[in-house]
Amino acid sequence: MKGPLFYSKILLFGEYGIIKDSKGLSIPYNFYNGALKTDINPSEAAIKSNESLKRFVTYLEAINPELVTFDIEALKSDVEAGMYFDSSIPQGYGVGSSGALVAAIYYNYAHNKITVLENLTREKLLTLKSIFSEMESFFHGKSSGLDPLNSYLSIPILINSKDNIEATGIPSQKVDGIGAVFLLDSGIIGETAPMVSIFMENMKQEGFRNMLKNQFIKHTDACVDDFLKGDIKSLFKNTKQLSKVVLNNFKPMIPVQFHELWKKGIETNDYYLKLCGSGGGGYILGFTEDINKAKQALKDYKLEVVYNF
User: Which residues cross the membrane (predicted)?
Assistant: First the structure.
């Protein structure tokens, strides 16, 4: 194995909004991880990952050298020797599978890399973010660079705006708290690129732009503030509003069979659902004031609790 494990991430708030300067809050999720490896008898998955790495190396060779340079020779020879990314992070689930891979490649092969042990000034964070954005664009067509940043640093990141990000602390969990953030498995693999292009297409309409600014971003920003302050009452009020706005305006990003379930949560207050990443499948993020009620209401689905209030 080469280098440490890199973990998945969850963007609690900010999906789509951060493209247009909303706040965002991203946390590492240590349940899933990945690392670069070489095996004598590679599995089918390892061979597939290695093929993808070969294409990625070609892409990295063409990245602007003023932004970042790599030890391409070492990378090429390791990939030729069968190196692959061994990962438990589900792909297309909105928890940063490509982000962890990008972080691992940067950690092992970048020249003059910024390390986690340095004093991480805003300048350094933004530099890392732009390097990662460029690297991860290979997978999605357009990337904010936040997923790899989160995976690389393994600390919560607060996005105040595009040019203002900082490492942050989040309120510690109440182990016995019944309020919870959870992941709901949609059972469908989501594709980021098509979802982002639907969003960009919608952005051409004035009505959609106004909704984004006056409703979506307003509630997203409020949720981030509430979460960091630990104001749970206000957090659930704003999450409910956010869930409504997403259901009314981001329908293509919500798998059809979840539209009713989404609505039911808002009507009963048993849980509120929101997008996890770009949507279209993968995980859906849920917030509940009573995890037992949510589990009962969603008993036909697989839930994973990621944070307790």
Answer: none
Q: Which of 244, 148, 136 is nearest to 192 (CA)?
A: 136
Judging by beta carbons within 10 Å of its beta carbon (0-12, 13-18, 19+), is residue 27 exposed, middle or buried?
A: buried
153-157 LR contacts (CB < 8 Å, sep 24+): 153/116, 153/120, 153/128, 154/6, 154/7, 154/28, 154/116, 155/28, 156/25, 156/26, 156/27, 156/28, 157/25, 157/26, 157/125
- Residue 172 is assigned to a structural domain of this protein: no
Task: Give the residue from 56, 152, 156, 74 showing the smallest Cα distance to 111.
Answer: 74
Regarding whether 146 and 28 lie in a shared domain, the answer is yes
Range of the domain at 25: 2-167
Q: For residue range 227-253, what is the model confidence (pLDDT) as tens digits?
A: 999 999 999 999 999 999 999 999 999
Write down the pTM of the prediction: 0.92
Residues 100 and 202 in one domain: no
Answer yes or no: do 202 and 119 share one domain: no
Instruction: Give the span between the Cα atoms of 255 and 132, in whole angstroms.
Output: 29
For residue 148, being part of any structural domain is answered with yes
pLDDT of residue 1 exceeding 80, the answer is no
Rounded to whole angstroms, the Cα distance separating 213 from 186 reads 28
Give CA–CA dist 199/224, Å, rounded: 22
Tens of pLDDT, residues 276-289: 989 999 999 999 99
Q: What is the pLDDT of residues 87-112, one digit of tens each?
A: 999 998 999 899 999 999 999 999 99
